[in-house]
């Protein structure tokens, strides 16, 4: 009986002094990123109206636009860009919304981001968007970058590779890579640039046995 009374009193005093478990209140930043994931534009708009900075980053250096791009949420990307989100803001992996969208072939996002994109901004490999886009043979994205932006078709990354070299070395020599390589050549890609081992695109194509690519490069 006495033990029961003591237990009851302990609980009463504990509650009075705040030891009762309570749900942790989210910070303003945590609320912001939660709204991004949920796609709650009304809540986002309210926070922006109250002075919240649209390019605020989370613990991984990711802005709201970076997260929306990773999630391939085109509607959220469009909304954030309309609210002047920075398409060049890089995270802890040196990805920016524009660089990542280009690398993944997210053409509609690339189109939305292009007007304010820094096409000279490099990723962690020292490459610009057109290089990984060519590596993965995203023809339409490569075409847009070449025709609608000032992307340097002969930019050389930290590995010593251009978009052309990367398309040959990391491609599979198939028809889709042939199309991208023809496109790069049409827009001035140099066949003479060699990598750090002194090998050109055609030499790599010959070594890999990509006959159709060799034929294109020999034209």
UniProtKB/TrEMBL annotation:
ANK repeats: 60-92, 159-196
Transmembrane portions of the chain: none
Pfam families: Ank_2 (PF12796)
InterPro entries: Ankyrin_rpt (IPR002110), Ankyrin_rpt-contain_sf (IPR036770)
Gene3D superfamilies listed in its UniProt record: Ankyrin repeat-containing domain (1.25.40.20)
Keyword set, alphabetical order: ANK repeat, Repeat
The UniProt record lists the keyword Disulfide bond: no
Stated name of the protein: Uncharacterized protein
Source organism of this protein record: Kurthia sibirica
